[in-house]
Amino acid sequence: MQPLSTPTVRNAPNIPPEQQSDSAGKPKESAAQPPNIAASATTNEPTHVATNLARDAAGNRDQSADDASEFWVWFGHKVKITDSLLVAVTFLLFLVTGALIFVGVDQAVQLRATIRKIDEVGRVHAGHMAASATAMGNAASAMDKQATLAHQSYLATHRPRLTVRFINCGEPEAGYRPGAEIRIANVGYTDAKIVSIGSDIFRRTNKRIVPGGWSAIPQTVPLNPLAEPSQELVFSVLGGSPLATEHVHRIVGGQDELCLIGIVTYEDHNATKRTTSFFRIYDPSARRYVRAGKDDAHADYEYEN
Questions:
Q1: Whole-angstrom distance, CA of residue 262 vs CA of residue 104
Q2: Number of domains, the chain
Q3: What is the largest CA-CA distance in the chain?
Q4: Quick one: CA dihedral 94, 95, 99, 100, positive or negative?
Q5: How far apart are CA 110 and CA 154, in angstroms?
Q6: Enclosing domain of residue 32
Q7: CB 237 within 8 A of CB 179
Q8: Residue 138 belongs to some domain of the structure
């Protein structure tokens, strides 16, 4: 018995309507038409299914390839590559941020330590400057004191010195108080400030002061004039009592003496007070006052200090 072979099915040709009306009268052709339609339907269905299956298989392969390119396995779990990259970038940013924070904190600590050191150095430097300023002030004060002492020493060794150069006067006249003009010169090195002057003119008989005596109480000089070195100052003096005619004759005849006594007080730049005292006797022949002899009782009134 021979196996049945699959009949070959051929698609029926499309027949125009005009031919279909002619072939309606032919039973053989009409009877053969249904089997051809069925065969055509059976033949087309498997072709479409295969095509769809191939298309689905290709799509699944493409989808699997896409899935394989978008995912990777991490400890047995599928992880999307983009998500893992995002996590990695985020973690990297976290590390970088942490490092920046750590560096910033470290720099802040170092800056604070530096500021403290600068402050300490500044305080130490300020202390040194204050100490230096104090030392300089002390040194300046000491130098000022030394300069003052040196100046005072100079003034003490280069003091002013007042002396009586000469005394001018006229002839004594009866009825008038005797007078004179005293010229005092500064023969020292620095200025002398005149403080006071006291002077008087009196008579003396046989080296004895006549009754009434003398009074040379120092009187303050107005404005305290200065006598510069080599400068002369002129002062006037009047006796305390007018002279009688007899007194004048005795003075001119040499029986009585007309005496002038005086004292000048002055200061130097150190405010040291000094005194110049003098005692002079009228000389009728020279018509002026001259120094008394060393053996005179009043000779010790002639001095300078």
A1: 96
A2: 2
A3: 220
A4: negative
A5: 63
A6: 17-62
A7: yes
A8: no
Structure tokens at 242: 């007018």
Q: How far is CA 166 from CA 3, 48, 172, 177, in A?
A: 190, 166, 18, 20
Share of the chain above pLDDT 90, in %: 43
pTM of the model: 0.54
**Residue 24 pLDDT level (bands cut at 50, 70, 90):** very low
Question: Quick one: average pLDDT of 138-149?
Answer: 90
pLDDT score, position 31: 42
Q: List residues bridging with 162 in a β-sheet.
A: 186
CB of 77 closer than 8 Å to CB of 47: no
Residue 23 belongs to some domain of the structure: yes
At 293, which CATH number?
Answer: 2.60.40.10
Alpha helices in the chain (DSSP H): 17-23, 27-70, 81-157, 245-253
For the record, the structure tokens of 100 come out as 């920046």
Distance between CA atoms of 280 and 287, rounded to whole angstroms? 12
Q: How many residues does the chain have?
A: 305
| Residue 173: half-sphere exposure toward Cβ, Cα within 13 Å | 8
> What are the beta bridge partners of residue 243?
174
The Cα 188–Cα 270 span in angstroms is 14
60 sits in the region (left: phi over 0; alpha: psi -120 to 50; else beta) called: alpha
**Kind plus residue range of the DSSP H or E element containing 259:** strand 256-267
Any domain includes 208 = yes
